[in-house]
Design goal:
Largest sheet: none
Structural class: mainly alpha
Number of strands: 0
Oligomer: single chain
Shape: elongated
Helix content: over 70%
Distance between the termini: 55 Å
Length: 100
């Protein structure tokens, strides 16, 4: 009984659909990889795509700095330059455009 409840929950969760066209060679490659891992093609593709999506998001959200850039960043935090007219003007324009 618990198993059928789980299957029902999975059906409700998976109500969206992705479709793609692949070449015969791509399909064979994916099928072979899935079989080697003992998984269905759907499971293999979903897992692979989710992992790739997570990596892409993480890469986008992570800032990678060179040693020189890291040192400049820390220096700017530790000893910030005084606010000048150009910065004040930039902040003013930003606030006007964004309504902040």
């Amino acid at each position: 009984m618990a198993q059928s409840a789980t299957k029902s929950a999975q059906r409700r969760v998976r109500d969206e659909r992705l479709e793609t066209r692949v070449t015969a060679d791509q399909k064979k490659l994916i099928e072979r990889a899935a079989a080697l891992q003992g998984r269905t093609v759907t499971d293999f593709v979903l897992t692979s795509v989710q992992e790739a999506a997570r990596r892409a998001i993480e890469d986008h959200q992570t800032l990678h700095l060179s040693l020189r850039d890291s040192q400049a960043f820390v220096q700017a935090l530790m000893k910030p330059l005084p606010v000048n007219d150009r910065l004040r003007d930039t902040v003013r324009r930003y606030r006007q455009r964004t309504g902040v």
